[in-house]
Structures are given as structure tokens and as C-alpha cells.
Write a structure and sequence with these properties.
single chain; alpha/beta; Rossmann fold; 2 domains; 45% helix
């Protein structure tokens, strides 16, 4: 080999590791994300991922799909066929759609309801399937929300529950609400909305019923219509309690539940571990243990309710 060719060979060989690294760096991890809508917790999820070193467009591609009902199985099948390395889902219906679509791709539940009683997961400590993630609810929450309504508005005897019949969590929560209502001497009446298009009609039905108070079911479809629902409750002067803190800034009177944005941040940590090779079975399903009460005194004043001092002292946040 001539000296000039030898030198070129040596320099070229020296560049191979750097070239291989650059090519490896350009190979981004692809994940799927299924939810009803790009609601506020999704932003916290993306921010946490960036903190962990995952930059969209560089080493991470997020295939987001937003929709409901019949769309969810279609989205899940589409993402599985790409394929993606992990499916991230928000909400019980999205989790079921993902579970039916794949038994091999890891499914990360960023937030969902009762994953055991709905049949999503059988073992929380060591998931025996391809699902893991975070549970926002416990079985006592509907009872506690009713108790708060009764304490804040002592004369309450009829409470309407606005629920989504398409959500597998719906039956479990309604059963809990009815049992709690019997103990508290409160009659539970249910009004259902299975899609955003149904919400207007459901609110009109509530207006006819004229309940003493209202309880919103834990459902991301209803959450996406939070402004319309909160405005309606204020206009009709109906005291209402909501499951997610995102209702509070748009005028929700009371919210009591887990902070979903915090669960999404923790889900980003799980995703980081999954993308780095961690097995689903090593990531136990985690249940929310801290629940926050937010009181909107502006709404209370607008609908003519005096919030008891004891409730205000217990509140984690008060919107004045």
C-alpha cells in the first residue's frame, strides 16, 4: 500500500467510531401517546421528559393521537403497527384500547382510575402483563366528595352525577356514589354524556332536574368540556364538586382528587426507564396517596354559598 493511501486509510478508520456514534445518536426512540385531548398535564409530561434528556425531534419522537370512543382502538392499532417502543395512555378507555391492541409492547398508564376492579391489571406490585403506570383514584373518593358537598351545603338531599357511560370506570364510581348517598341520606340521580356532543343535552337535563348539588365523574372527556360545565353550574347556581384540579381555574367550586400533572411527571420517569431497557414487571403500579382540595371562593360568592371555615382551613388551595 502506498504511503498516501495508508494515511487515508488510517484517518478514515479513526473516524468510524465517531461516525457510528453520530448515526446512533440520530436514531430517535418512537413512542405512542393516546388521550382524549392535549389537556394541561400533557405539557408537564413533555417538560419532565426534556429535563430527563429526551428532546423531541432529536432522540425522541412522540406520535400523539387524541380522540374518544371508536377512535381509541384505531389509534392503538395504528401505533402498534408502526411500531412504537412504548404506548403511553391517559384514561381507562385508552388503556383498554391499548391492552387489546398489543400484548408485547409496554403500555404505560400516565393516569387512570381503578385498574384492578376494571380488570386492566391484576397485580399492582409486579405487573404480570405489559401494563404499568399510575392510578389517580381510590375507591373512597366518590364518598369523600359527597361528604364534602354535604358539609359545605348541609341541606343537600338530591345530587346529580354527570357521568360518561362509555368509561369502564363509570359503573364502579356510580356504585360507590349510590352506597355513600344512602349513608348520607342523599338521593343520587345520574345524567349521562357519552361524547362531547352529548354534554349540552346532559346539561339541559340537569337544568330540568334542578338538583341541590352536582358531582362530576372522573372522566377525561368531561374534563375536556370543563369550561362549559363549570359555567353552567355557576349560571344555574348549582354547587358542584369536581375530580380534577383543572376545573378550578375555570370556575369549579370544589375540586378534590389527585394532582394528575404530578402523576404525569412520575410517568415520564417510568418512560425514561422503559426506553433505557427496564422491564415492565420491575415497575410496580403506583397509586396516588395524596389528594388535594381546592376551593373557589369567587364561584361560591357568585352562587350565594358561604363556605364553612373548617373546609377553607383544610383546603390545599383557595382561589379568591
Amino acid at each position: 500500500m502506498r504511503r498516501r493511501d495508508f494515511i487515508a486509510f488510517i484517518y478514515g478508520a479513526a473516524a468510524w467510531p465517531g461516525l457510528a456514534f453520530a448515526q446512533q445518536k440520530r436514531i430517535a426512540k418512537r413512542i405512542g401517546f393516546i388521550a382524549h385531548a392535549p389537556l394541561p398535564p400533557v405539557k408537564r409530561f413533555r417538560e419532565r421528559l426534556q429535563t430527563l434528556g429526551w428532546v423531541e425531534g432529536e432522540n425522541l419522537i412522540i406520535e400523539s393521537r387524541y380522540g374518544e370512543g371508536k377512535d381509541l382502538p384505531v389509534f392503538a392499532a395504528e401505533l402498534v403497527s408502526m411500531p412504537v417502543e412504548v404506548l403511553v395512555v391517559w384514561g381507562t378507555p385508552a388503556a383498554f384500547a391499548a391492552k387489546r391492541a398489543t400484548t408485547t409492547i409496554p403500555i404505560l398508564i400516565a393516569a387512570a382510575g381503578d385498574v384492578v376492579n376494571t380488570g386492566l391489571i391484576s397485580n399492582l406490585a409486579r405487573p404480570d402483563s405489559n401494563l404499568t403506570g399510575f392510578v389517580a383514584l381510590n375507591v373512597d373518593l366518590e364518598s369523600k366528595r359527597l361528604e364534602l358537598l354535604k358539609e359545605a351545603v348541609p341541606g343537600v338531599s338530591r345530587v346529580v352525577v354527570l357521568a360518561n357511560p362509555a368509561n369502564p370506570l363509570n359503573r364502579i364510581n356510580l356504585d360507590t356514589a349510590r352506597r355513600s348517598g344512602e349513608k348520607l341520606g342523599v338521593r343520587i340521580e345520574v345524567v349521562e354524556a357519552a361524547s362531547p356532543a352529548d354534554v349540552e343535552g346532559a346539561l339541559a337535563e340537569i337544568k330540568k332536574l334542578r338538583p341541590d348539588a352536582a358531582l362530576l365523574a372522573s372522566d377525561t372527556m368531561l374534563l375536556s368540556k370543563r369550561k362549559e360545565i363549570a359555567d353552567f353550574m355557576a349560571e344555574q347556581r348549582i354547587p358542584a364538586i369536581y375530580p380534577f384540579r383543572e376545573y378550578a381555574p375555570v370556575g369549579g367550586l370544589f375540586t378534590y382528587g389527585a394532582n394528575i400533572s404530578v402523576l404525569f411527571e412520575r410517568a415520564a420517569d417510568y418512560l425514561d426507564r422503559l426506553l433505557k431497557g427496564e422491564k415492565v414487571g420491575n415497575l410496580p403500579v403506583q397509586q396516588a396517596t395524596a389528594f388535594e382540595l381546592i376551593v373557589n371562593t369567587r364561584t361560591a360568592s357568585a352562587i350565594g354559598i358561604n363556605i364553612p371555615r373548617e373546609i377553607l382551613l383544610r383546603a390545599d388551595d383557595v382561589i379568591e
